[in-house]
């Protein structure tokens, strides 16, 4: 079986929110660009983005962040085991703390972020890193929720989930 690696999966657009609300789209893209200048290592950022995309069910984002992680040196084995990271021996304590925080922040309808998850993240990340991590999780949650809802992708657009 051959996988097409030329283009990301682009589901049919439901609502062209970038075109309809360009000021907001530009601001969101600016937020994404600002988040690229961070204290967090790029491989961790991609895995966190991928985990949030998996939870939120955004096919475009899962496809993009899987491929971006591989392009950044991540292995397919770790990517395929990301949904079951708790049972997998292939993730570091720092990564596990980031995934737990990402999952908790993504599933806020279940409960607020528990003190234990916050304490574990704080044990593995300096304050500035933890701040950057929280912003990254918030940003990817916005992108994936937009993607899973409006599917605003265009071939010439600047979709940055």
What does it look like?
With 161 residues, this protein is mostly helical. Among the domains are: 62-90, no CATH class; 92-153. 61% of the residues lie in helices and 0% in strands. The chain has eight helices and no strands. It is globular and about 45 Å long. The two termini are 27 Å apart.
Largest sheet entry = none
Low-confidence stretches: 1-5, 155-161
* Element pattern in H and E: HHHHHHHH
* First-residue to last-residue Cα separation: 27 Å
Instruction: Estimate the mean pLDDT confidence.
Output: 90
Structural shape: globular
Q: What layout of secondary structure does this protein have?
A:
Elements: H1 17-20, H2 22-35, H3 42-56, H4 59-71, H5 76-81, H6 93-106, H7 115-124, H8 127-149
Helix pairs in contact: 2-8, 3-4, 3-6, 3-8, 6-7, 6-8
What is this entry, summarized?
By secondary structure, the protein is mainly α. It is built from 8 helices and no strands.
Provide the descriptors you would attach to this structure in a database record.
single chain, 161 residues, mainly alpha, 8 helices, globular, disordered N terminus, disordered C terminus
């Amino acid at each position: 079986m051959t996988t097409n690696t030329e283009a990301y999966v682009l589901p049919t657009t439901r609502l062209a929110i970038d075109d309809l609300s360009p000021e907001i789209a530009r601001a969101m893209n600016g937020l994404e660009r600002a988040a690229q200048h961070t204290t967090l290592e790029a491989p961790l950022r991609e895995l966190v983005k991928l985990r949030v995309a998996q939870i939120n069910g955004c096919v475009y984002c899962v496809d993009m962040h899987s491929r971006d992680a591989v392009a950044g040196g991540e292995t397919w084995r770790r990517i395929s085991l990301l949904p079951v990271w708790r049972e997998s021996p292939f993730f570091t304590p720092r990564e596990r703390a980031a995934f737990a925080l990402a999952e908790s922040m993504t599933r806020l309808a279940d409960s607020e972020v528990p003190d234990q998850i916050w304490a574990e993240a704080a044990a593995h990340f300096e304050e500035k890193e933890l701040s950057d991590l929280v912003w990254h999780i918030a940003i990817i949650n916005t992108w994936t929720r937009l993607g899973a809802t409006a599917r605003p992708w265009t071939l010439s657009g600047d979709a940055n989930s």
